[in-house]
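Our preliminary data section would be incomplete without showing what the modeling component actually yields. Below, a chain of 347 amino acids is followed by its predicted structure, encoded as tokens that our downstream tools consume directly.
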Amino acid sequence: MGPGRAAVLRAPDRRGRVSSERRSPGRRGARRETPRPGPGSAGALTAPAYPGAVTGTSTGAPTALAETEWRERAERHEQRVDALVADHLERRREGVPHPVEDFLFTYYNLKPSQLRRWHPGAGTALLGEGARARLSERFYTELPGGAVGVDAGAFLAARPVLGFVEGLLSSVASRPAHLGCFGLHEWAMVYRSGRVRHGQVPLRLGHEGTDRVVESHRIQCSHFDAFRFFTEPARPLNTLRPSRERQSELDQPGCLHANMDLYKWAYKLSPAMPSELVVDCFELSREIRTLDMRASPYDLADLGYEPVRIETAEGKAAYMEAQRDFAERGAELRERLLEACRTLRAA
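Predicted structure:
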């Protein structure tokens, strides 16, 4: 590949394969107006905010949406989700597993049909006769004046997880991002095991080469839901001892998995979160998952995913640049989630 050129991988086909092209890399920080490259792309790491990403107000006064307006928002949301999940649904019908994309629907347990269902979020009143169909759905109620919206009181009574989520998000937002873990958690998950977690995908450096990478690096994973999958020989090599009880203490804004989990916290608070925000979190999680696996010990070349070779200086630099960008975008989504939580409490 010539100087000044970066590989761009188009969106995968329905079996998850990605074709490539070349382009000149853009300036870092410049706003991009062109569509985002596909998930295997070295350039698929930044994107402008989705223009429909809105929340209610935190003042207690609901935002009223006329029926034509909320139906248009619902339709845009459905079209957006349909485009995001179409390939996954096709592979699922054909029984074709995908080591990168399936994670978004297995580890995270929101069904595509649930992701597709549009909700305005707490603090928004839906006007018009069509809104009354929502009254048959859980957590919807008739508001003063005949509008329909989320029953904030019933939701808060049924979902005590809100306090944990607010505390976790606030704690993470209060500390600086630590970069340079280089995604070694995926390597630690197969260290000295003689097996792989994704049985259909080989290790890029083999078992011995993978073990040498782990042994030659400082492992500093702070996220419990990554650390808990470490092999037994890898656990003592980690400089931290993450636990569920210490999650609010240790999670930090540079962690890929902490930023992926913004999607989890968003959908766990649905329908009180605006669906546009939930999908914004889904899209970030999807991009981070791609980097996570490109930087992993697995050889995904047959699917078109160019490896981020974190065992090299060049790979480390590429990883940190992407990690920094994800931390910035995660911070924006984290604040939007916190604002939506404030709106929920005020509703």
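The first strand starts at residue 6 and ends at 9. DSSP finds twelve helices and six strands in the chain. Preliminary results of this kind motivate Aim 1 of the renewal.
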